[in-house]
Amino acid sequence: MNLVLLGPPGAGKGTVAVRLAEDEGIPHISTGDIFRENIKEGTEIGQRVKQILDEGELVPDELTVELMKDRLAKPDAAKGYILDGFPRTIPQAESLEGFSRVDRVIRFVLNDEEVVRRLSGRRVHPDSGRVYHVEFNPPKVEGTDDETGEPLVTRSDDTVEGVKHRLEVYRDQTAPLVEFYEKRGTLVDIDAGASPDEVLENVKQVLR
Ligand code: AP5
Predict the structure, then answer these.
(1) Among 16, 57, 97, 104, which residue's beta carbon has the most beta carbons within 10 A?
(2) Predicted TM-score (pTM) of this structure
(3) Is 133 in the pocket of ligand 1 (CB under 6 A)?
């Protein structure tokens, strides 16, 4: 099953994808995580995209598509994958059709108010990518990662202004993908406002 998770920032795509990937034994591939990893490692790509991510803009299609083409060619993606954050523009979706097949697109539906609540309370463990929320999914000890005890941080693009801008970018450049995939008969909506367990169960139901 080649799966695409679509939806606004903070809708819970990553939270579900991590658990689904574990249950299904297929990789969770997040373009955001790949870019952040490159920034952390100080690679050439990381240097090119750092400011773009901080400003909540989209990385150019050409670079993003090239990265994903390479990633999907790796052996672990041969029996299926979960794409989280890609494609994000019509040109990216058209390019993807040239090198892979998408079986199902799941759109996470969530209102803006809830997006802001989720992103303003999000905390992450930078090394592992583990995601928490101060209210909805707090760590065992405030401000520290459950596994390592290391400090949690707020993502540099999770500022009030940053979130507002990412929502605008989503509406302008990513929302048109809904019609794109509706036409192909692969799109299914799920209510992302439920608890993480319920959202995961709804996604699994769609896949059955
Ligand atoms: P990316 O990393 O993809 O960020 P995003 O789309 O903004 O999505 P998020 O990771 O913020 O949200 P999510 O839906 O995964 O939510 P999460 O599970 O963390 O992209 C970052 C940047 O990279 C982009 O702005 C762009 O610059 C660049 N980029 C990436 N892909 C690109 C592409 N294809 N083309 C060009 N540029 C690209 O959950 C959020 C919070 O809510 C957490 O605190 C979590 O604990 C909590 N939560 C989750 N589910 C629930 C629930 N059901 N109930 C209550 N709380 C919940």
Answers:
(1) 16
(2) 0.96
(3) yes
